[in-house]
Structure formats: structure tokens, C-alpha cells
Amino acid sequence: MTEEPRAVSAWGLLRLRKQLERGLPLAARPYQALAERTGLSEQEVINAIIQWQEQGLIKRFGLVVKHRTLGYTANAMVVWNIPDEQVRAVGNIMAGIPFITLCYQRPRRLPDWPYNLFCMIHGTNRERVLAQLDSLITEHNLQDVKHSVLFSNKAYRQRGGRYVSHD
Length: 167
Known about the structure:
CATH class of the largest domain: Alpha Beta
Largest sheet: 4 strands, antiparallel
Radius of gyration: 21 Å
Structural class: alpha+beta
Strand order of the largest sheet: 2-3-1-4
């Protein structure tokens, strides 16, 4: 005999949102751990997250890696001026390259900023990042595509999404 689903209280959902801001627990069953912290069932946690994604409250659900702690101290945002009719195809190719950790399209801000495709490459040193970039350019015939390499010189605090007002 299965239980009828119960209505989840607004307080339970608020507790879940606050817990999600801290990130998923490092556990074999992270949704179960969230359930234990919030007084919800594991299935209620999963259902709430799915519903929030469908409603657009949660747009992305992913992992924040503290790459500097892992020894990746050379971090470059490579910005590209890809012809508009090719940007989706090139972006899809770049997004599938293992050493590219982030790839997205943004509008150009002419006349000062002609770039419309951004990708992030993390490496243990600048030479490694530049070598990976050179291989990308050669392998995908991007020698004639205008681009700039922007190495970071400061690590900013990374955090997940904020879903609850903390005023």
C-alpha cells in the first residue's frame, strides 16, 4: 500500500531553499541528506527541485569546483569574435572539448567589444593553457578568428545560487 503524497508546507520549502544555497551535501544520497535536514522526504526534495527548475527559479544546477585548491592556478577566459551564423556550431564544438570548462554566447557590445563567444580554460600553469588553446585553434581551423586571452589574476569567491532573501 503506497502513501498518498502530502502537501509540502511553505516552511519546508523555505528550509529546502536555504539548504540548497549552501550546496548539495557531499554524501552518497545528497537528496536524502537534504530531506533529513529539512523534515521532508527524499522524494519531496527531488520533486521540489524539479518544479523549481520548470518554473525557472533554478536555472542551472551544477557543481562549483574550487580549481585553485586543486592546483589549477592559470585560468583564462578566451573570448572569440565568431560570425553569427557559425556561433552555435562553434560553441557546441567548444563545449565538448574536455579542457574547456565553461562555454557560452553573449551579445557583442560594439564598437568596443566585438566578442560573442566565451570559453574558460583552467590549467596548472599559463604555458599549459596556451598550449591547449593552440591545439584548439589548429584542430578546429580557427587561426583567422579574432580572439583574446584574458588570464585571471585574482580568485573571487564562488558560490551557488541565492533563492531566499536574507534581509
